[in-house]
């Protein structure tokens, strides 16, 4: 039943193009241990002989045959690759690459030109603002740099105290003739102060 189990070729089954030698099949087919023992007992070949034994020659012949088959496969594959490479149009690919390079370069130049225009416009705005700033300093005789306070709590506190003080003083004058008396006068005066400060803030902010 061994002939049913053993594959018909001298290589192991594989999906690769170049398959591995099936040493077990060669051993079963050629029986080098049995035949070598028999020939050794008959002193074949002679101990001083430099030629290979018959069994050794058969092993080399089977391996050499498989090597030639693999070489034919390799040569065929290389010829197939060579034919495929020969059908590729290098000029077509080169022209396509040159076209894409020209298109990319044109887009890059357009972006650079647009960015340059935007930078020029922003630079003009900065120069105009700087000129206005220097002109304002000269007109008002300002020689020191602007001082920006970290917190404006003090400023708002002073404004609030002035509004309260103004509201109380105006309330004392407005309480006459009002049914609510001093409280009504202070309320009206405080509302007037809020309106005045609001209009003043809008006026200064617009400038």
Automatic annotation (TrEMBL):
Q: Where are the transmembrane segments?
A: 153-174, 181-204
Q: Where is this region: Disordered?
A: 28-53
Asked if the Swiss-Prot or TrEMBL record annotates the protein with the keyword Transmembrane, the reply is yes
Protein name in UniProt: Uncharacterized protein
Keywords from the named record: Membrane, Transmembrane, Transmembrane helix
The organism encoding this protein is marine sediment metagenome
